[in-house]
Each structure stands twice: as structure tokens, then as C-alpha cells.
Design brief:
The protein is an alpha+beta fold. 66% of the residues lie in helices and 8% in strands. Helix 3 packs across helix 6, helix 4 runs antiparallel to helix 5 and helix 7 runs antiparallel to helix 11. It is a peripheral membrane protein.
């Protein structure tokens, strides 16, 4: 997904603000997210349509009317309103419209989980599914093999997540598997997880620990990171016996390594030097 700058960054901010005013039940928002992802796939498949919907020689009303004529029978009114809002804005490159619609789709699904009171569960589900794909070579092959029909791979996702994740997580993982748009499945999932955290203006930290952390320990760590970085921090916790003891915290490009394994490695490097 594109990093937006300048005009496109302002356009995305406008769309995100509009999205905050969108209402609906969790089920309705999940359906809207699915529809937005279907629009993404259509725009990816039809470059001429992308160009027409971002053509600066057309007025915003003309572009919105074109979107309505082409998509009005394919998607619901809630989804069409978001798409027409997007095409009314200025996009220096046609692909940026597609990227913005993808981000809208992801954030509508985040909103669905928020309405359910399960946004933390959504972030955890995306993180853990990505780590499962990293760990299981057979699963990664089954999800990424283009020789397997997309519907079959989507069905596998639904089977794996059934009863284990909010409804909003399923279309996000399906999109990452079926149409990752130049990313690996893992990269797409991690991107969606960051969007979910960013919706609440939270940072995301990956914590590696030799043993599970209790709720009080997690609260203390999250509080310490919040004081250090000035934002709430969502913790993704990985139990890794290889760290031996202590914690390794990865937050963006920063790493805080307080593990025994890390200290041993540091000692070995000093001795070798």
C-alpha cells in the first residue's frame, strides 16, 4: 500500500474523517468492507477505469457520476458513497485511488470490529495469523499457490478463522491471501494490523518473552512504553523460549533487547573483538 504524500495524503485524511461518520451494524460494515475490496480488485484489473476515475480534466461531479453509473448496481449505497467521495478528490497517480479505496475497505472492517467491541481481538487475530503463516511452510504454500483457485484459498482462510476471530478479520485475511497487491501475505497482514492500531492512534510493539506475561505485567509494560513514546501501545506478545529470559521489544525501527540471550550475544561479540 502506498505511503501517501502531499495532495494524496490530504485526500486520505479527508476520507478517514468521512469514514468516522459512517454508521451501520457490524454486519453491514463487514459487507461494505468486502464491497470496497471488490472495487479494489476491479480497479487493479482495469487501468483504463482507474485513469477515467482520476482524470483531472473531468470535474469531480463527472467522476462521481461515472463511478455511480459503473458501480451503482454492484455495491450498496454505503459503499458507493465512500467510493464517490474518493473519486471526487485529486490523486496525482491513478494507483493512489486504488490504494485509498483499499485503505477505506480495511478501515471499514476495523470499524466493524470497533462496533462489536472487539478491536483488540482483530489486531491480535491479524498478528497471530501472520505469525502462523511464517511458522507453517505448508500453510504458506497453500495460501500463496496461484495454481489453487482463489475461492479455495479464501475458503481455507474462513475455515481457519471460524469462531476464532471477529467477523471483520476474515475479509482482511482473505484480501491479504487472494489479492495482496505486490506484498507478501505476511506484509499485507502486518499492514492491516498497523492500520487497525493507527485508527485509535496507537503504536504497535512486538514483545518476545521466554514465558507468557500476566495481565499485570502487560499493563506495566504498556504503561512504560506509553510514557516513553507518548502514545498508547498495543502489545503483540510472542512466547519464544530462545530468549532464555527477559524481554525483547520491537517498536518500529527501535529494538529494546533486555533478554538473557541478547546479553550473551553481546558478551560473545565483546570477547571476539
Amino acid at each position: 500500500m502506498t505511503d501517501f504524500h502531499g495532495t494524496s495524503r490530504e485526500a486520505v485524511a479527508t476520507l478517514r474523517q468521512r469514514l468516522r461518520g459512517v454508521s451501520g451494524t457490524p454486519a453491514e460494515l463487514v459487507e461494505a468492507g468486502r464491497e470496497l475490496f471488490s472495487v479494489v480488485r476491479l480497479l487493479d484489473a482495469q487501468p483504463a477505469l482507474r485513469r477515467a476515475l482520476t482524470d483531472s480534466t473531468r470535474t469531480p461531479d463527472d467522476r462521481a457520476a461515472l463511478a455511480g453509473n459503473l458501480l451503482g448496481t454492484r455495491i450498496g449505497a454505503r459503499t458507493l458513497d465512500l467510493v464517490t467521495a474518493a473519486v471526487r478528490l485529486s490523486w496525482p497517480r491513478a494507483r493512489q485511488l486504488t490504494d485509498a479505496v483499499e485503505q477505506l475497505g480495511a478501515l471499514v472492517l476495523v470499524r466493524a470490529s470497533e462496533e462489536e467491541g472487539r478491536l483488540d481481538d482483530l489486531e491480535d487475530a491479524l498478528f497471530r495469523f501472520a505469525r502462523l503463516v511464517e511458522r507453517e511452510d505448508g500453510l504458506q504454500l497453500a495460501l500463496t499457490d496461484r495454481g489453487i483457485p482463489a475461492d479455495n484459498r479464501a475458503n481455507l482462510v474462513r475455515d481457519l478463522l471460524a469462531g476464532k476471530a471477529p467477523e471483520g478479520a476474515v475479509p482482511l485475511v482473505e484480501q491479504a491471501v487472494v489479492a495482496p497487491r505486490g506484498l507478501s501475505v505476511i506484509e499485507a497482514l502486518d499492514t492491516y494490523a498497523r492500520l487497525a492500531a493507527g485508527w485509535r492512534e496507537r503504536l504497535v510493539a512486538t514483545v518476545r518473552t521466554a514465558t507468557p506475561l500476566g495481565a499485570a505485567e502487560q499493563d506495566r509494560l504498556a504503561g512504560a512504553l506509553r510514557r516513553q513514546y507518548g502514545h498508547d501501545v498495543h502489545l503483540n506478545i510472542l512466547v519464544d523460549p530462545g530468549v532464555l529470559g527477559g524481554l525483547r521489544v520491537e517498536l518500529g525501527a527501535e529494538v529494546i533487547d533486555g533478554t538473557i540471550a541478547g546479553r550473551l550475544d553481546d558478551a560473545r561479540r565483546r570477547l571476539a573483538g
